[in-house]
UniProtKB/TrEMBL annotation:
Subcellular location per the Swiss-Prot or TrEMBL entry: Cytoplasm, Cytoskeleton
Protein name as catalogued: HP domain-containing protein
Keywords, comma-separated and alphabetical: Actin capping, Actin-binding, Calcium, Cytoplasm, Cytoskeleton, Repeat
Biological process, per Gene Ontology: actin filament capping; actin filament organization; actin filament severing
Ranges of compositional bias, category Low complexity: 818-834
Keyword Calcium among UniProt keywords: yes
Lineage summary: Eukaryota, Viridiplantae, Streptophyta, Embryophyta, Tracheophyta
Main location: cytoplasm
Amino acid sequence: MSVSMKDLDPAFRGSGQKDGLEIWRIENFKPVPIPASSHGKFFMGDSYIVLKTTALKNGSLRHDIHYWIGKDTTQDEAGTAAILTVELDAALGGRAVQYREIQGNETEKFLSYFRPCIMPQPGGVASGFKHVEVNAQDHETRLYVCHGKHVVHVKEVPFARSSLNHDDIFILDTESKIFQFNGSNSSIQERAKALEVVQYIKDTFHEGKCDIASVEDGRMMAEAEAGEFWVFFGGFAPLPRRAPAEGNEKHEETAFKLLCFDQGKLDPVNYESLAHELLETNKCYFLDCGAELYVWMGRNTSLQERKGASEAAEKLLSDSNRTKTHIIKMIEGFETVTFKSKFKEWPQTPDLKLSSEDGRGKVAALLKRQGLNVKGLMKAAPAKEEPQSYIDCTGNLQVWRVNDKDKALLSSSDQSKFYTGDCYIFQYMYPGDDKEECLIGTWFGKKSVEEDRITAVSLTSKMVESTKFQAVQARLYEGKEPVQFFVIFQSLQVFKGGLSSGYKKFIAENGIDDDSYSEEGLALFRVQGSGPENMQAIQVEHVASSLNSSYCYILHDGNTVFTWTGNLTTALDQELMERQLDVIKPNTQSRSQKEGSETDQFWSLLGGKSEYSSQKMVRELESDPHLFSCILSKGNLKVKEIHHFTQDDLMTEDVFILDCHTSIFVWVGQQVDVKVRLQALDVGEKFVVLDFLMENLARETPIFTVTEGSEPPFFTRFFSWDSAKSLMHGNSYQRKLAIVKGGGAPALDKPKRRTPVYSGRSTTQDKSQRSRSMSFSPERVRVRGRSPAFTALAANFESSSNRNLSTPPVVKKLYPKSLTPDSSNTSSKSSAITALAGSLDRRTQTPTPESVKDGSESEKAKQEEDAKDSAATMTNRVESLTINEDAKENEPEDDEGLPIYPYERLKTTAADPVTEIDVTRRETYLSSAEFKEKFGMTKEAFSKLPKWKQNRLKIALQLF
């Protein structure tokens, strides 16, 4: 499609060049830009065009265009908005998806741009309406109804009892208080989302100065807030059952209708099955699915033809009075997943994307000639070649080989040597923010047998269950391992064949020769990796075609050893080859071979010369993440995408899937039933098979299962993460209510994560930054046990009288209704220290961790001895802190400008508790002198303690 400047409205020139939102309002049939400060403010009498530009990881820009039509807008303005979206798409290179948004029936994708909601205001440009800030004295009581678990649809309804029902959530906005009325049949998730609207109303229309009340359906007048709510409706009276709402359109489940729009005419297309071949590139088509009307525009159609199709789609819905049907317009080659899923089969069309880039380049050149800045129009910053692991690689690793329905613990010298015919279980304990993190996973060799795989999954699931689901579980396949796996093992060798009885039985029953690796036999290894913390030697077929100019290789036949260096390799590649040679053939002299100058003996061992590749294997790049809520019912998985997701979308009652293409994360909330938790891995596997995004997910895609409160950094990196939220108890509604009533999110002093040793390409590091592999020796046995601090802490928290978790226990209710006064006197500094030291010294009730059960008796004895030493050390360190802080008595204190309250009123068991404070930071409201008296140290020293140690002291002093 050719594009000329006369076809483009000047307001659209230069748009869509960077990530973000751009909005235009239709004024006198022309698009007028709306300033960013007014984004999200819509008037019922107007029509708007909204452009969302997203910078993708592959370096390109994605565009979504929405035209929003207010319920009081004129038909001419609505038609203008529809036509102008086609022009805007042309200005962007003809690749955007266009959505029709009707007030009150917006798509979730559109609403996700304006969280928590949009609340259109009366009036518009045509009526000369000018928005005026409402004075508090002129406040009008309004009633709103809310729908939605992930994004909220808000609609104003008549302020009358008849508007209320048992199924929905209502917000009553009065002059001095905002009430949320929760229908008895509404879900917890909907109630939590509605609270975000309550907060929005408070901030927007009350300047943050009003009270908030929650009213439960059926409570009648039993509570003061419920009584106050019903007074506005003339007193309490039972609500009738909900009658069907007027104006609800029901779309019958009928066969899809395909219509062809050609030369201004709309004709039905007859077909037996909906196939991609029915769509011709020089025509436009309508696919009528009832609730959605898809408009497909062929790549070779003109701008005028596309405008005509857009007008015809609007007229079709208008004539049939289908006011709430969504219109979704798209260009050939950039169809949405939901559209393609309607067809029996949809082929891959990579060539169309290339042609689109060419067209996009022409548009950029055209705009540049007009003197406009086109920087960023072509593509965004490309993705990094080497991904970070986001995991500390200095932890404790244990590995088991699956054999005969059981697992056998491998020695430290063998735990990095895998066989492609076997299955392995690994457990990795590493330092986290305020506790030890745990990753338990399975690794399936390419030739491993199904029996061993089933055993591996079963044993791994039991190990994860024994940690009360606090461990992250991983399912990995050979050849598809994520970078975290390689960093954990650092130096990994994968050999052909297998050692398990299951593999031996399989090859014997099928008459297959056992080609398992032998140190005295002939073997060829390809060496790969990005540094000493991430390097592998993979055994390949010992033939010349296995070579690649971009890699280094090790070839041996008994004690005859060759190293081969490809012409495209770097000094780092050669260094890694030398390191792997020390593992595979230590203390053996090797003969160096450079590509192009090999000896005859070298080629003879490979069976003669042959052609080989020079292309380096490209690691599959991680794509932009997509979040889905999911329900597993009767073996079927139902998923729903959540657009522009945040951490708050992860609700504690649900299961979510984060799809990053190279890895799948299954997140399970704390309130999810145990039976569902046990199915988390099955959910991930079903999602891979479902391939909702139609991105050709491999069946071997890595799957991680993550439990709320134990999220690893390689998961939280996809969010703006606040670990404090995991300390809150209760369901999602109770948590949100505590935040809203408390005046903001809980602010915990989160300690900085210790600097992890991430994998990288640099080969020179300071001594203090070296990971364990930098001093690698083939004879060295890596001994990595639990850290002393973790062992001492576990002795307290794994006792039978406490929760068996690796995180400190916290109070279950942020705002308890009734508290029992403490009968004991105020805890002194010495008693708090004594209590803490004593609790860390209790070991008699500690259950044996799974990792210890599989070790030797000597390992058990050593860990018990370390625990005792750690407890004593911890006591000495706490007392040392006290002595050191006493020496700093004259140092100035910083009370952060907060009000000061006495200790007796700040305790969780206070008879007269202080209100309107951040209950998660009670200690900050103590005066400097009283803080030092209770804690035995200054506030500054306390803030430098690890989080778990802070929590223990606060618990001892009844401030947590």
